[in-house]
Amino acid sequence: MKKAALVLIVSVLMFGFAAGNAFAESELDKTVDELIGVKYKYGGTTAKGFDCSGFTMYVFNAFGIELPHQSKAQAKLGSAVDKKELRAGDLVFFNTDGKGISHVGIYLGGGEFVHSASDKGVVKNKLSETYYMKTYVTARRVLDEDTYARLTSELGQ
Predict the structure, then answer these.
(1) Does 2 fall in a domain?
(2) Which residues does the annotation mark as catalytic?
(3) How far apart are the C-alpha atoms of 64 and 12, rounded to whole Å?
(4) Burial environment of residue 138 by CB neighbours within 10 A (0 to 12, 13 to 18, 19 or more)
(5) Residue 18 confidence (pLDDT) above 80
(6) pTM for this one?
(7) Domain of 82: which CATH number?
(8) Structural domain harbouring 84
C-alpha cells in the first residue's frame, strides 16, 4: 500500500513538472501575449493601437532590432525562408489587397502566427486557414542565430 501511494505521489509530481515545462514561455511568446487584443490603428506603432507593420516593428524593437514601418520594406530584409523551414520569429508576408505584399505577421511555430488584423487587432491565426493560405507570399528571417536562441528559449533557463 505504501509503495502504491509513493508511486502515485511521484507520478503526480513528475506529471506536474512536465506540464509546467510544456507551458513555459519564451521571451518572444511573453512579449506577444502581452499585446494580444490591442486594437488595430492605421499607422499605429504603439500599444495604444497597431497596424500590421507597426506591430512587427514594435515587437522587434523591444529586442533591439529596427524594422521599417511598411510591410513591403520589411519583406526586403534578412533572408528568404521556405514555408516548410519557418521558425519562431520569422516574418510572414501576405498579399491581402491584390497588389503585392500588403500584410505582415510574426511566425510563432506550430503553424501559428501573430499579427495586427484590421478587423480584430492583435490576434493569433494559423497559416493553414484558407484566407492565409490563399494570400501567403513569402517569409523572411531577420533574427541572427544568437538573437533567435535568446528570444525563443524558455524564460528562466
Answers:
(1) no
(2) 52, 103, 115
(3) 41
(4) middle
(5) no
(6) 0.84
(7) 3.90.1720.10
(8) 25-152
